[in-house]
Amino acid sequence: MPGGVKDPPRLSADPPSAETSLSPTLGPRFRPPAARAGIVTRTALIERLTASDSPVIALVAPPGYGKTTLLAQWVRRLGPRVAWVSCEKTDDDPAALWTAVATAIDAVAPLGPAASRLLAASGGSIGIVPAFVAAIEPIGPPMTIVLDHLEHVSSAESHAALAEFAMRVPPDWQLALASREPLPVPTARLRSQGRILELGSSELAMSEAEAQALMAGAGVDAQAALSGRLLQQTEGWPVGLYLAARAMKEGTPIGDFAFGGDDRWVGEYLRSELLSRVTADEARLLLRASVLDRLSGPLCDAIADVSGSSRVLEDLVGRNMLVVPLDRHREWYRYHHLLREHLQAELRVLSPDDIPELHSRAAAWYVANGMPEEAVEHAQAAADADLVAVLILELMSPVWASGRVETVLRWMQWLEGHPSASHYSAVMAHGSLIHALLGRAAESERWAEVAERLPSEAGQLPDGSSVAGTLDYMRANLARDGVPGMRREARAAWDGLGPASPYRATLAHIEGVSYLLERDLDRADAVMAHASDLAAAQGNMPFVSLILAERCVVATERNDWPVADSFSQRALRMVEDGGLDGYWTSALVFATAARSAAHGGDMPAARRLSRRAAQLRPLLTYALPVVAVQTLVELARAYLGFADQDGAAAALDQATRILHERPDLGTLPRTVASLQARVGEIRETTIGASSLTAAELRLVPLLPTHLSMREIGERLHISRNTVKSELISLYRKLGVSSRSEAVTRTSDLGLRI
């Protein structure tokens, strides 16, 4: 959010989880599970995988078919160049997912800074996939990427990016995907191209020889065990055969054993052969802890209201009770998936009324132990909207800064359905600004109206701010009451925000800009300098770069070009060093740098920088009008500096539309009108990329993807016909006649992300 964005994480950082909060090294999810005694080697399937040159390997089957085991055996055959990721719920955000993939790749072969910048600037959306592939391809030799448990990834953005990656796997690389659910890749298209190897339940079912090996490994008379209908009844289901062997090992007569071959039978086995061997206290702990993705002794103590859970968990691991350790220190564990699902089903039947309370205790424990993000899901499951609101207010800024935009939006969409939550209007106010930063002006307005329609709340937010101060902060950013109003609202917000609020730099910036738009340049520069100090003290480098660009504008208004150039270069270095190309705050940086370069006669640099600014034009709307129009004005001046009439006209046309919604922006309307008059004085014109509208620029990152016009329209919330008409206009301006030619042309022009 404005003023609340901090440096993005590096690729070496794990996505947030209980494991990564405890261990500085790569966690177990970045390694295939170790081989265990008694595990049957799936030789025929391994040979099939090893012999395949298909870019995509797909393993899709219900639980218990040995997908993970097979992949682990296969990659051990492949050698060290394997990037393994066991997906978790936290990966259901494209930024988190691609950060995990990049982390796994980087552990095998170091990635260059380009990949880090891509992920930090993009939020992991589909548009960066072509560039990400280009960034990883040179690290050769080829590598195999494994994404296990992909059923945890369900967001539309993540699915679209995965599908695009599957279509663009680098030559001789392989992408192996394992899931209980249908894969989010264009399977039919890959199949028709001969680019996918698919293994399902029938292929993963055990042969008679493999079943015999499993039984023998379990110490069971394989010939006797398989003499009847066992293999037929289980249909070769590996976990069914394994559990049958365990039951027989425990003394169940082979001849008396009957199987249904389905999950019901697994439940019966778990109850009779596994859970019957635990004490009543252990059974109660197992049942209540099934609400948890991960287990630790202290956490289990808290939710089950017991003590000594650490010892119990360690003992259960030693007794092979389907509890799996997740770290070397035996601090964190998880259930085997089948055991957890069975226990959850039992809990829903036996104690449904206890489930919200268990989630509530889990949320409280995570909050008390400094893991607020892990607390959100449990607070939602407990229907504790008040706690969810408090957690979102604490988390939205750092999570947004990490690039996980989808995670923040998903939290806020959940809360949107709970308007009685405490601090609801404050969350809606921040949500309005989030939509504004994404270029979604209509949504920003809608959320702002909701925030202002609710009754005023008393009390303080977690950071010490008042709700009234937060609403004033929103109003100051949206600038709906013009320059005097935004300064008045900024001052009111200053009194209402907590002393440690990360948004104070934003308020100082708004006040400084208000003076700039009234041409009180001395006061504007002094307040901007204070805003820069506040942002730097908070480590908010994207916002520091924006303020440096503002001070560049002040210097150009004074016609002090040496100072302007100094501010411009400092801001540009900050953006480039930090990989901040895709940030909303960087648009003004690129625009002022382009104008500065044009003024200094460096036209190639001016054109290059203007293209970088133009890529961010879709984010510039009336929702955050001041910086949007400032950027478009500086960009138009740069275009005029190298006589690009169409580029200047397109930028000024967009500025005019913003001013139609926000007309009272000080000197900006007169400046736009003056520049439009200058555009008419340029006689020569050549329609080109610089004349693309913001709507047309939205299409550019999607052109190289596999998405059809209909699918592009669905992503952008516009009709297929609108996409078609915008594409026709884009082709005309680029001088091309097809999508493939447009991709090549935009790449040549440097318009691709």
From TrEMBL:
<keyword id="KW-0805">Transcription regulation</keyword>
<dbReference type="InterPro" id="IPR059106">
    <property type="entry name" value="WHD_MalT"/>
</dbReference>
<dbReference type="Pfam" id="PF00196">
    <property type="entry name" value="GerE"/>
</dbReference>
<dbReference type="InterPro" id="IPR016032">
    <property type="entry name" value="Sig_transdc_resp-reg_C-effctor"/>
</dbReference>
<dbReference type="InterPro" id="IPR036388">
    <property type="entry name" value="WH-like_DNA-bd_sf"/>
</dbReference>
<dbReference type="InterPro" id="IPR000792">
    <property type="entry name" value="Tscrpt_reg_LuxR_C"/>
</dbReference>
<protein>
    <submittedName>
        <fullName>LuxR C-terminal-related transcriptional regulator</fullName>
    </submittedName>
</protein>
<dbReference type="InterPro" id="IPR011990">
    <property type="entry name" value="TPR-like_helical_dom_sf"/>
</dbReference>
<keyword id="KW-0238">DNA-binding</keyword>
<dbReference type="Pfam" id="PF25873">
    <property type="entry name" value="WHD_MalT"/>
</dbReference>
<keyword id="KW-0804">Transcription</keyword>
<feature type="region of interest" description="Disordered">
    <location>
        <begin position="1"/>
        <end position="28"/>
    </location>
</feature>
<dbReference type="InterPro" id="IPR027417">
    <property type="entry name" value="P-loop_NTPase"/>
</dbReference>
<feature type="domain" description="HTH luxR-type">
    <location>
        <begin position="685"/>
        <end position="750"/>
    </location>
</feature>
